[in-house]
Amino acid sequence: MPLDAGMYKTNDAYRSWIDNPFRFIEPNSSNGDFGLRKPQLAALHITLGHLISTPDIPATVVMPTGTGKTDTIFSLILAGAFPRTLIVVPSDALREQTAEKIVALRTLRNMKAVVPAVLSPAISKLSSKLTVNEVEKLEQFNVLIATPQALQHFNEEELAALTKLCTHLVIDEAHHVAASTWNRIRKAFAGKPCIQFTATPFREDKEGLDGKIIYNYPLKEAQIDGYFQEIEFHPIREYQPSLADTAIAEKAIALLRTDLDEGKDHLMMVRAKTQKKAELLFEIYRKFEDLKPVLIHSKSANRAATLENIKNKKHKVIVCVDMLGEGFDLPELKIAAIHDQHRSPAVTLQFIGRLTRVDKKLGNAKFVANIANQKMDSQMSALYKESADWSAVIRDVSAEKIHREVQREELTSQFSDDEDGEKILALNPIPKISAIAYHVKKEDWTPERAAHFKSNKEKLQYSSVNESGDTVMLVTKADVSVGWANTFEIHNTEWYLYLAYYRKDDQTLFINCSGDEGQALKFRDLVSSDSTKIAGEKTFRTLHNITFLKLQNVGLSRAQKDVRFTMHVGRDINAIMSELENGTAVKSNIFATGFEDGDKTTAGCSHKGKIWEMNSESIDYWVRWCDQAAVKLNDTDIDPQNILNNVMRSEQIREAWPTGLFYADWPDSIAIETEGKISITINGLSYNLLDVYPGQPKRTSDTLLEIPLLTDSDEEHHQQIAIVKINLLEDGYKTICDGAKISLQNERPLAEYLDDNPFRILKQDGSFIFGNYRYYSPVTLNIKMPLKLISAWDWGDTQIQNESMGKDENLDTVQGFTYKKIEDKYQIIFNDDGAGEIADLIGINENDGIITVDFYHCKYCGSKDGVATPGARVTDTYEVTGQTSRSVKWLHSGEALFSQMVSRFSKSIDKGFNRILKGTIDEVDLLRYKCRDNELSVGFFIVQPAISKAKISDEQLTVLGTSYTYIKGISGSDLQVIINN
After folding, report:
1. Per residue in 480-495, pLDDT tens?
2. Number of folded domains in the chain?
3. Quick check: is 544 in a domain?
4. Helix (H) and strand (E) counts in the chain
5. What distances in angstroms separate CA 472 from CA 118, 372, 716, one per listed residue?
6. Are residues 202 and 261 in the same domain?
């Protein structure tokens, strides 16, 4: 860094840093392997390089807990010879701890990274407001350490003086930077070097840190490099809730006593969710008097003294709420009794990381929890099962997923200093996902007035505004009369939840109230002094970007004397589409379903301004939903009228089945997760539904449609096991499939089931057939495959009339040639060809917390007299596009996908068929668990050498376009087609 000549003359510490440069000591045999750790060295070099090249851009360094983040900060200050640094930490305790460590520089001196001539920085701890004159008197110090709470009391002039004095800003535990108090400090230092350190990196978007992530040391790599000791999980099974806490305590105490008997100086943490629970637990643990149990939480008396005693290891058992504060460093904490489990694996893993510091004098971290009667999702079940390997679980959780999961805890932390906020969140509120939006100027946003809520009917119970000042929560209580008596002698108690969320960037306010419209309006007027409702046609912008948009309910207002309002549902909606399009009726409210960014979604909106999703979720989910809605509501380029072009219409099929039907799939009511549990019995023979698939529909007459049910007799040949006949009636349809039964919860005739749950049949023009109705959207009819997504290979002398590699891995086939083409592209390649296949080839990569899975659907070229000639035959597109369209159902079923691959591998290997072409089956099996916590991205490829690039026809492009539109609409992913030169 550039020399500060003035500091060099007047400041002894700074001069010693310049004259005795920092030594980048690497561990080796000559120094007893005592030096800077790999992540420390990497972070230092990268950060110093950043400060040379782009010092004015805020940067983020990601280092997991236990990898030496604090010493890295000290090393950076010395190695970069920062003249005067402001270190901002989140708590008073961490300010004191940081000051003590930087004065001592114990680790850096012991490893001789700094020689004895190097003086420790002169430190000033800022704990309160300072005047401009007082700030200017701090010039003799090298490092100033403050909390954002202390700096919040600085006015703009005082903060400007501090900014002028300091040359560098370092923010520790930077995931708090989203809070307004942190942002004010960081913005004040705009243009000056700002380095943010965190163990919890968030994505670089509006939810994340405003700083470029220049170094990210993954938790997985930290564990491989030995910076975390192994983790032992000791589960108990106690099905009687009243005995569970005692059982956990006895197990954990026994582990602690064993460790102590072995000479390990271990401490134990008892984790509770609330202060009340912590106090109840303390009554259980206090009987172990020789271990000197202690209770500590935010309201504890003599908290500072208690913390000091804990640091001095005067207590072996510590009962607390969550952890002991961010940055609290006590390696001897090695046992955790988890009485209240965290709500997500991400937060649990952060908790775990605090107890896994490596120390040769200490043993492994041990966790105790009750696994009986636990209701949790699949992510948490990976941790809390009998033989769970917690080390492996931590290793396999991606940073990307952790960031998403921590969002909920981040919201909670914004209310951590507010008792009312804690109480509201402790209720685990799940409001209906709905809101009315308003435009409110910044000066008219008055969240502080929420605490002054008054009503003759309601009594305010809790009121809270988060730290960033953009979210308000209120809970009120009211006594209301019962509906069946005209008296107030008896009454019901109603509780109401109020939410307000304000986006300053686009000045949009969202109001949610569990009560009625009048209550919502009163709340709006409380938190905003002036507002303009976002209503009318603007609300219908929320339907933008939803594909396969299907209107479920539509309310219309008409300018007629006798009919003012009509409500339309189901197929009745088709009759009023023309009124919506030509403007003879006004949309009053719409509720619709469809797909957005590859996910199923619902959306409702009304002319009066209400928007909603058919869902109840957490408050942090509601806030994120508001963020997404705000983007659409404020986008003036969205024309609500154009949205109707995407709406699915329906028409009854009369007299004759349509032509051009080329693909059928099982009913939408059969989810991919349940297919493996369903069986079909045909003439006494039973088949798993995963091994049976509908073939191409055949229109044998105007009123008869036949769909073969196929399985594979071997790895290369299809076998027809039944035919499903669908008769078109005058006003309906009738399914026939003699001798076939389906077993779901109960066994019933397959034909009867298909009458209630019809096949999904795809028509060549892009429409769908369900039963005797055709569904279509005008904008997706007869779409041709985009030419930019079609590529051609030179197939040379490959026997393209042969499709499958088989167990002998014959490369002189369509599938074999494709494998050689993509071999270097993927870490894992799986040969899934055969009965029940997902695709012919599955290519898999795992990078940066994202699992990419690409499906390759291969098809042979028909031959005549042994000669295969590519051309423009539309029949060459039917089967492969059907198979490709069918595979889109695996999009959101990662665990089922990898389980199916493992199962198919197991079944084939006994026959001498190794489906793994590249990679190992162990890697596939591991992905079953990784996909719970990692993003899954699926791609789709058609490989059909029977199509000639030179001769490709419009008819072929239309069939391919139908599959492309279908896949794009549901998954958001492009379909890519590979043909012949």
Report:
1. 888 788 776 788 899 9
2. 6
3. yes
4. 30, 47
5. 51, 37, 63
6. no
